[in-house]
């Protein structure tokens, strides 16, 4: 929250580090107090609310806040420069709308003070409950994987967290790529298709090796030509996921990020592919 009108529309604001984590739960503040690269990555991966101090506005129809994400955090002395980007799928929030959901946003007395708080809330759920954004179909669920690794489990857990706790699908692209990549390589190793676990094998190459060399991935049903074409198309999707992960996700400091609808579409496709691979692996 900032007092200076126009800063958020201009792309960001400077906040005193002395006001960082004000009005934040003690447990959350303890985890995020030191601005390490890991903490900065976390903060940039979460949805954010960029607001102005309410006392500067008398008209309840005035726009006072936007939903978006932090694009950059630069530390200089005792200040932090926050870069921001608004989510085009969420309308600007008027003072009237903000006042109507203060409790749900865990906002109390801080509406008239410049500060930076971190809240443990489901921002997307709050916006839906207030009719600010529409109700979307439930995303494809993540399957239960019998064969996995610590890396895969952690990546899938982070995908779930990013998708459920706000508009974080663009950030989750990197994590779903890591999970799918690690899982396919593990299956190749377990089936002796690779002599040792080779993380240098690309995601596309790992899926191709499974599809062509793993005995359980052969297809003997009707219309084999069409089914094979569909499976080959999955390889193209994987290749696209690879490219977007490197050039348009939060995995690297990219200036342009895949928009939320397309990012969620790709995550759902990757989850569907996980379902398919797990079903083939467990079918007798």
| Class inferred from helices and paired strands | alpha+beta
Low-confidence stretches: none
Instruction: Specify the number of helices.
Output: 9
> What Rg is obtained from the alpha carbons, in whole angstroms?
22 Å
User: For the terminal residues, how far apart are their CA atoms?
Assistant: 57 Å
β-strand percent reads: 5-15%
Number of DSSP E strands = 5
**DSSP helix fraction:** 40-55%
| Mean residue pLDDT | 87
Overall tally of domains: 2
Q: In sequence order, what are the helices and strands, one letter per element? A: EHHEEEEHHHHHHH
Shape: elongated
Q: Strand count, sense and closure of the main sheet?
A: 5 strands, antiparallel
What would a concise description of this structure say?
This protein has helices at 26-32, 37-45, 95-99, 123-129, 150-164, 169-190, 203-213, 224-247, 260-282, and strands at 12-16, 47-51, 63-76, 79-86, 93-94. The chain is an alpha+beta fold and 284 residues long. This is Abortive infection C-terminus.
């Amino acid at each position: 929250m900032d007092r200076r009108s126009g800063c958020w529309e201009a792309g960001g604001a400077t906040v005193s580090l002395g006001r960082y984590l004000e009005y934040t739960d003690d447990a959350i503040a303890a985890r995020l107090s030191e601005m390490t690269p890991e903490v900065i990555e976390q903060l940039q991966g979460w949805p954010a609310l960029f607001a102005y101090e309410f006392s500067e506005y008398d008209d309840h129809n005035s726009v006072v806040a936007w939903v978006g994400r932090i694009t950059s955090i630069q530390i200089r002395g005792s200040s932090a420069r926050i870069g921001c980007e608004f989510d085009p799928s969420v309308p600007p929030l008027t003072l009237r709308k903000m006042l109507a959901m203060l409790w749900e946003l865990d906002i109390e007395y801080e509406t008239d003070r410049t500060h930076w708080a971190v809240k443990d809330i489901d921002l997307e759920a709050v916006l839906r409950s207030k009719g600010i954004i529409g109700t979307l179909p439930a995303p494809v669920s993540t399957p239960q994987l019998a064969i996995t690794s610590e890396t895969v489990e952690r990546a899938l857990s982070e995908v779930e967290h990013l998708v459920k706790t706000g508009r974080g699908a663009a950030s989750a692209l990197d994590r779903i790529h890591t999970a799918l990549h690690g899982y396919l390589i593990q299956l190749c190793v377990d089936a002796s298709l690779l002599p040792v676990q080779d993380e240098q094998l690309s995601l596309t190459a790992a899926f191709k090796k499974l599809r062509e060399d793993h005995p359980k991935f052969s297809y003997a049903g009707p219309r084999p030509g069409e089914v094979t074409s569909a499976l080959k198309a999955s390889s193209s999707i994987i290749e696209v996921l690879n490219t977007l992960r490197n050039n348009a996700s939060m995995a690297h400091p990219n200036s342009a990020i895949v928009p939320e609808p397309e990012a969620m579409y790709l995550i759902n496709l990757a989850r569907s592919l996980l379902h398919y691979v797990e079903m083939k692996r467990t079918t007798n």
